[in-house]
């Protein structure tokens, strides 16, 4: 729905992602040069696509960390589209590259990390090939981030109101008084009780849930088109988590912003996202509409992850144990990155890294077993 | 006395832990944080007692107080006490309570006599009253596993040193070589390579570090493990591995668990009995199945309703309660949950409800529940068992956003 299938980077039938042979990426690619059938696009579909143009289009993004111990390919060819007013859940375990993806899109990747290829198109402009000054002007105004740990995302030496006013100072022409008023308004809109009073409060005086609301108010200050929310509920209690998800959803309905929900919490994605993109060891292994993916996960990793979550009221269900752990991103195994932990892995899985193959109905999967031998 | 499988390994009575809040110059105590405020529970041998609650409810303080890392402000903890002695303690307590209601010098004399007898028993069996040397010997029998596998292992110590330190302190395993063998044995029991003994914590992943933390506790061959959020810092795929491990070693070593977590779904899987904590108090306690099916206390209900379900076809219920837990420095008067409670009435604002038996073995601290009132949905048995919201929920207007669909269903 919101994330249309990425026809540019993965036409049906398992064509290697463009850029596989990019600089510094000599990876044994899939049988390249296999006839690359141009996706036949019905005329109506083109119009539909144009009408529903994504607000953010990330293509073949790679962001690597150049460390002393080798190149850590934290993000290694990730592409997705985010529709207006939609939420994309970017899920994966720690170290899978989901946070690095968000930071790379915003140009905030800390050294020794660097974007090595790809595009992130927001309103016809590529965020990754933009002078820093331009990007700084867009950050906060067009695309904003909600950070995981609200305590470290806030400046302890500024009151809640001042921090919100600072965003407004950068991106609007409002004067000091108007900014202060708007800050109080924003605090009210994110459900902070007694907003005028709280605007004068220091971060340490606020509870975790209130801090997270302040961080969200900052992100929403300039009505961005896209918000990247990195684990916005992870540090919060369950009763407060539900409130924050409600808040993000309500804001979205009001402003039509697109949200990338970066999280390890498959339950939060089930409840808040339209589309899901599952990341594993730096690549997307499965994407598609949340309902379809959760009902019929195609990738063994998605299937195992969904089976490993305990759910209240289902204590009798046997949880799926995923043996082993995520591979070292500096020394990736050949072939499928999940093969060593996969209960279904065959020798073919270890031979060649599978492509993200279009399954139709907006779904893509990176698994030769799921796409069936028919495709090969 | 250890093999009846029914006796209590832990019998905690009125545990209290307060922390002073200091301010000003000269620094003096201006307030108290009542982190644990009168908590009582028992844990049967070989069972798992699950303790759930949100951050700041005092569950970690309770864990640390139980294993003696904090000295309690008040309360007693009878550990591994012969059943007849526990009976005696209970009887003495009952008599003391009775004698306390009678006036007159005779009653006073009887009371002090009873209290003396209780004190003798406490010096023998109450962990908090034990003489130093006895306590030192007992300590190995109850061990704590910490939440954070990064912060709880000394980065400068080898795994062998970390896991073996307790053995050395308690003088277990005569020689160094014997201790090393014991450490290796424990590491293998915890699913680690015995060669890990010479490596450092930073060489291990989060899941393996948690295994090291469990091995450290297990090395002493304790009777009780207090597990403080043992899986919440781990990735989902690793959580199941650790839960499996905990199940395995519990059987293999005949352990009893106090399992503390904020995640109800995890607790539902591991616990035989569950206590729900809110602001330093247990507000509901029952056998697991009873607690999850009856969910008497409105807070328990809110926790269960808020527990996220990884199914996009399940419509997310709007946040079932508003606001956040108030500060334990100044807990609200009356029922501590009343400012957030959708069912609160006048009485809840004024009087604190006691933890009372609502059904056999099921204790609840709520004026709107049995034994004070009929159970919600008692006239609609089907509903009570299902996700029924009980009585019609009318949230009192509160600052902030209104939750239009608060009642659900």
Explained architecture:
The complex is a heterodimer of chains A (376) and B (409). Chain A is α/β, with parallel strands linked by helices and 376 residues long. Chain A has an eight-stranded mixed β-sheet, sandwiched between helices. The relative contact order of chain A is 0.15. By secondary structure, chain B is an alpha/beta fold. In chain B, helix 2 packs antiparallel against helix 3. The longest helix of chain B is centred in the N-terminal third of the chain and has 21 residues. The N terminus and C terminus of chain B are likely disordered. The interface between A and B is large, with 54 and 50 residues.
Helix/strand layout:
The complex is a heterodimer of chains A (376) and B (409).
Chain A: H1 43-51, E1 56-67, E2 70-82, E3 87-91, H2 98-105, E4 113-122, E5 125-126, H3 132-138, E6 143-146, H4 150-153, H5 160-171, H6 176-189, H7 195-198, H8 208-220, E7 226-230, H9 238-255, E8 258-263, H10 266-272, E9 275-280, E10 283-289, H11 290-295, H12 300-307, H13 347-351, E11 357-360, E12 363-365, H14 368-371
Parallel strand pairs in A: 3-8, 3-9, 6-7, 7-8
Antiparallel strand pairs in A: 1-2, 1-4, 4-5, 9-10, 10-12, 11-12
Helix pairs in contact in A: 5-6, 5-8, 6-8, 8-9
Chain B: E1 8-23, E2 28-44, E3 48-52, H1 59-66, E4 74-79, H2 83-101, H3 105-125, H4 132-139, E5 142-145, H5 159-169, H6 176-189, H7 206-218, E6 224-228, H8 236-253, E7 256-261, H9 264-270, E8 273-278, E9 281-287, H10 288-294, H11 298-306, H12 346-350, E10 356-359, E11 362-364, H13 381-385
List keywords for this structure.
A: about 375 residues, alpha/beta, eight-stranded mixed β-sheet, disordered N terminus, B: alpha/beta, globular
CA radius of gyration of chain A = 21 Å
Query: Which regions of chain B have little confidence, pLDDT < 50, spanning 5+ residues?
Result: 1-5, 380-409
Q: What count of helical segments of chain B does DSSP give?
A: 13
Helix content of chain A: 25-40%
Identify the biggest protein-protein contact and residues per side.
A-B, 54 and 50 residues
- Compute the separation of the termini of chain B in Å: 50 Å
Question: How much is the average pLDDT of chain B?
Answer: 85
Corresponding CATH superfamily of the largest domain in chain A: P-loop containing nucleotide triphosphate hydrolases
**How much β-strand is present in the residues of chain B?**
15-25%
Give the topology string of chain B: H per helix, E per strand: EEEHEHHHEHHHEHEHEEHHHEEH
CATH architecture of the largest domain in chain A: 3-Layer(aba) Sandwich
Q: What topology, given as strand order, has the largest sheet of chain B?
A: 5-6-7-3-8-9-11-10
Proportion in β-strands of chain A: 15-25%
Mean pLDDT of chain A: 83
- Largest β-sheet summary of chain A: 8 strands, mixed
Q: Please give the alpha-carbon distance between the first and last residues of chain A.
A: 27 Å
What is the third-level CATH name, the topology of the largest domain in chain A?
A: Rossmann fold
CATH class of the largest domain in chain A: Alpha Beta
**Residue share in helix of chain B:** 25-40%
User: What is the molecular shape of chain B?
Assistant: globular
Structural class of chain B: alpha/beta
């Amino acid at each position: 729905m919101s994330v249309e299938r990425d026809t540019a980077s993965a036409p049906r039938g398992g064509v290697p992602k463009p850029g596989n042979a990019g600089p510094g990426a000599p990876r044994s690619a899939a049988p390249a040069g296999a006839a690359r059938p141009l996706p036949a696009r019905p005329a109506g579909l083109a119009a539909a696509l144009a009408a529903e143009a994504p607000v953010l289009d990330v293509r073949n993004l790679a962001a690597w960390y150049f460390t002393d111990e080798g190149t850590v390919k934290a993000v290694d060819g990730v592409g997705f589209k985010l529709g207006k007013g939609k939420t994309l859940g970017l899920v994966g375990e720690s170290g899978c590259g989901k946070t690095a993806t968000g930071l790379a899109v915003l140009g905030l990747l800390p050294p020794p990390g660097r974007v090595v290829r790809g595009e992130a198109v927001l309103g016809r402009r590529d965020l990754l090939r933009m002078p820093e000054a331009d990007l700084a002007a867009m950050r906060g105004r067009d695309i904003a981030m909600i950070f995981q740990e609200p305590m470290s995302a806030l400046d302890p030496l500024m009151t809640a109101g001042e921090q919100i006013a600072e965003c407004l100072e950068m991106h609007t022409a409002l004067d000091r008084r108007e900014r202060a008023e708007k800050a109080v308004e924003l605090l009210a809109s994110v459900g902070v009780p007694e907003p005028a009073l709280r605007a004068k409060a220091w971060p340490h005086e606020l509870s975790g849930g209130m801090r997270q609301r302040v961080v969200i108010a900052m992100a929403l200050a300039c009505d961005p088109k896209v918000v990247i929310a990195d684990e916005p509920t992870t540090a919060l209690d369950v009763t407060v988590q539900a409130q924050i998800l409600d808040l993000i959803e309500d804001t979205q309905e009001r402003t039509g912003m697109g949200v990338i929900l970066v999280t390890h919490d498959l339950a939060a994605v089930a409840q808040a996202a339209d589309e899901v993109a599952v990341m594993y060891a730096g690549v997307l292994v499965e994407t598609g509409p949340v309902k379809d993916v959760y009902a019929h996960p195609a990738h063994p990793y998605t299937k195992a992850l969904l089976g490993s979550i305990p759910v209240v009221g289902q204590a009798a269900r046997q949880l799926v144990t995923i043996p082993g752990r995520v591979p070292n991103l500096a020394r990736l195994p050949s072939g499928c990155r999940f093969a060593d932990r996969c209960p279904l892995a065959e020798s073919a899985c270890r031979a060649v890294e599978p492509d993200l193959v279009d399954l139709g109905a907006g779904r893509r999967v990176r698994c030769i077993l799921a796409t069936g031998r028919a495709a090969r | 006395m250890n093999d009846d499988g029914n006796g209590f390994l832990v019998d905690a009575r009125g545990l209290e832990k307060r922390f002073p809040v200091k301010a000003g110059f000269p620094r003096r105590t201006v307030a108290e944080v009542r982190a644990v405020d009168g908590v009582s529970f028992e844990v049967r041998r070989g069972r798992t007692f699950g303790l759930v609650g949100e951050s700041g409810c005092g569950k970690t303080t309770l864990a640390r107080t139980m294993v003696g890392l904090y000295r309690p402000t008040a309360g007693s903890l009878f550990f591994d006490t012969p059943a007849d002695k526990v009976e005696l303690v209970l009887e003495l307590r009952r008599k003391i309570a009775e004698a306390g209601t009678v006036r007159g010098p005779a009653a006073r004399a009887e009371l002090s006599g009873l209290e003396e007898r209780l004190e003798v028993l406490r010096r023998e069996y109450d962990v908090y009253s034990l003489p130093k040397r006895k306590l030192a010997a007992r300590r190995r029998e109850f061990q704590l596993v910490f939440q954070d596998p990064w912060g709880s292992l000394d980065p400068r110590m080898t795994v062998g040193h970390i896991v073996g330190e307790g053995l050395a302190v308690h003088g277990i395993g005569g020689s160094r070589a014997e201790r090393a063998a014991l450490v290796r044995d424990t590491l293998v029991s915890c699913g680690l390579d015995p060669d890990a003994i010479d490596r450092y914590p930073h060489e291990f992943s989060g899941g393996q570090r948690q295994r090291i933390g469990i091995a450290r506790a297990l090395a002493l061959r304790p009777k009780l493990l207090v597990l403080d959020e043992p899986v919440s810092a781990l990735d989902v795929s690793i959580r199941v591995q650790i839960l499996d491990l905990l199940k395995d070693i519990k059987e293999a070593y005949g352990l009893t668990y106090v399992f503390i977590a904020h995640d109800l779904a995890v607790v539902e899987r591991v616990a035989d009995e569950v206590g729900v904590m809110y602001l330093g108090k247990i507000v509901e306690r029952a056998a697991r199945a009873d607690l999850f099916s009856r969910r008497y206390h409105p807070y328990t209900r809110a926790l269960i309703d808020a527990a996220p379900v990884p199914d996009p076809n399940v419509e997310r219920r709007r946040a079932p309660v508003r606001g956040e837990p108030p500060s334990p420095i100044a807990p609200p008067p009356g029922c501590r949950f009343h400012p957030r409670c959708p069912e609160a009435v006048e009485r809840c604002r004024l009087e604190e409800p006691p933890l009372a038996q609502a059904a056999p073995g099921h204790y609840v601290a709520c004026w709107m529940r049995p034994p004070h009132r009929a159970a919600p949905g008692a006239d609609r048995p089907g509903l009570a068992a299902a996700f029924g919201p009980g009585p019609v929920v009318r949230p009192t207007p509160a600052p902030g956003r209104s939750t239009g669909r608060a009642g659900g269903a």
